[in-house]
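pipeline/complex-builder :: batch 7 item 3
reading input block
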Amino acid sequence: MSEKENSAEVIADLERRIDTMQNMGDAELGTINRLDWILLIVVSIVIPVIVVVVAR
Amino acid sequence: MSGQGPAGGDEISTKLLSVYGREPLLPDEREYKTWSANGTCFAYAIATWCFLTGGYAASLVGAVQGMVCLIAGNLIGVFLISASLSAGCQRYGIEQIDFCKPSFGQNGARVVLIFYLLNMIGWSGLILVMFGNGIVNIVEALGYTAPSWLVGAGVALGIWLTYIITTRGVHLLSLFNSIITPALIVIIVFMFYMLISSHGWAEIMAAEPLDPLPSPWMNYAVCLELGIASGMSWWGGIGFLARNTKTRRNAIYPEVLQLGLIFGIVCSIALFSGLVVGSDDPTKWMVPLGGVFMGVLALLFVALANITSTSVSLFASGLALRHVPALRKTGWRMIIALTAVPLAFFVVWPNELYDLGDAFLAYNGTMHAPVGGVLLVDYFFLRKQQLHLRSIFEAAPSGQYYYQGGFNVLALACVVIGQLTYFWVYNPFTDEAQPLFQFLPASIAAFILPAAIYWVGMRFLRIGGAKKGGAEEPVVADKLIEPNI
């Protein structure tokens, strides 16, 4: 395969991947909802900040 | 692909461009499910740096304050730095320098790339020296005298092992971690049990810090800064890990749990041992506590975990090198070999370069916070988690993320402002600090201020050179004009 053909194949593959990923939804990528973010913020920010202030 | 194995040859196939290149990684190509994502994050987190971080904390504060600073600080730092990266890199299957393009611009992201590579290679070199020191420690624990060249030889061995793992792909890395991770868990729990049974909880809690600064509040503030900066220092590996996860939850939870919580806990164990034994050197307490067999076994697995950490760093660095046009189609083995070349300096001058590590790490710490602040605001608040993927791979000025000359000057200026803010609040080289440092860690100040300036500039003033037509406006181009891959 020539370099030009190889390059065209790479770009075609990239275009395909871009279209696939751009249009993909929760079914394929898994969900992370508002409750997850609240839990993460509480565990990673709120509780640690409270503990840091109390222990100061 | 020339058929020379999974990553060999001078050219790279379209299929392998996704795994060993920058193309968006499709879900079925991703390696990490729940267990492997947690295992890799765990093995990435648990390396000798835990003991160094815990040991440094022991010089400043006691057990309770140290534990609070290390665990809470790490959790805060990891979450702030990984929220946007893990969400974005997982959602679009992209590596993290590509993720920087919407905020920094096509060429601006390359500025981040330079710092990124320096950071990753520097970290890798330091970890490999720790690996070499681990070998020396094992030899000495067995009663032999280690020759002076053994550290450098250990670094060379570490480079070779890392090369082997990294060139064979994420699957081997995952397999390697599936062996290392359970062993590390058992050994760390055993060592903690031995520490408690030998010295007792009361002795640990009552132990005084080893070498505190004159001001009590300063010790606490510096230790908290150490915890937060340690959490933020995972920035380099987050994108790689998230890109390879199959689900969104697997992209963020393992990072917070393993790189934040577990890392903080293991650092705390090192803190406790440092306080009662008076040293941050694992050999000073692992062998006496666990006996020669368990002590050496523990040292061996911690040393191997350093190889895991370096492999993740080199893999991410190799992917990032794909941004260099001349290396876009280079074989994966050659890419990793090129990434490993600067590490040869650590073979020749391991201890000399290791002694410069503190300054290197302190400087890197000032980079992560502002870059993280800009990325978080850009992804969540400005673009509402919607990127135009085609524009990330579009080098033509018509792309949405081209800005002016390929640079978003506002984002780059925010990084500089963040660094200046960091040094103004707290100078890690001189330990000089503003009174504000008592209430606001330097990393948080260097995160919030650039994030706020960036948000105002992009949202209201459009001073970043952004085109009229943000992420919320209709996409025009439906084909790449000048692909940057």
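note: The longest strand of chain B covers residues 426-427.
queue -> next item
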